[in-house]
Write a structure and sequence with these properties.
Number of strands: 5
Distance between the termini: 29 Å
Strand order of the largest sheet: 3-2-1-4-5
CATH superfamily: HUPs
Radius of gyration: 15 Å
CATH topology: Rossmann fold
Number of domains: 1
Structural class: alpha/beta
Shape: globular
């Protein structure tokens, strides 16, 4: 018998098709387990960004992120799943792990294999690779 029931699933999102596939897999798992989903969108902020102080770039990105997260919430609701959103700023992989292992008590992470990251690794993306090797909870990688 399984001791740990899946109750809360964390899904990192970045607007890519792979992250949408991860969301769809999380929805399937959540429906089978009666779990909720928290979608996290972590915006990488460079310490010395050349766009620092350019408000229109930041506003445009925030609108894009909000739209994507709302679309994810609608998709989840259409499938009968409660979706909570969380938007963070900083190092993406670190933020995912910090949230997953924090007070939220997540049962698992479902992540797309490769997102919008500029670093292209052979099989996994750099963020999913970091998450799978750092997480203390189960991680499902969706290709």
């Amino acid at each position: 018998m399984i001791k740990n029931k899946i109750k809360k699933i964390l899904v990192p999102l970045d607007g890519s098709q792979n992250s949408v596939r991860g969301l769809k897999m999380a929805i399937t798992l959540a429906r089978q387990c009666g779990a909720t989903i928290t979608g996290v969108y972590s915006i990488h902020v460079s310490p010395h960004s050349e766009f620092k102080g350019v408000g229109s770039v930041s506003k445009s990105l925030n609108k894009e992120v909000e739209k994507f997260m709302n679309d994810a919430k609608v998709l989840s609701a259409q499938n009968g799943i409660v979706f909570n959103k969380k938007i963070m700023h900083g190092e993406i992989g670190y933020n995912i792990i910090k949230l997953a292992q924090g007070k939220g008590k997540f049962s698992m992470i479902v992540i797309g294999s490769r997102g919008r990251s500029t670093a292209k690794q052979l099989f996994f993306g750099s963020v999913s690779n970091y998450v799978v090797h750092t997480s203390k909870i189960p991680v499902v990688i969706v290709k």
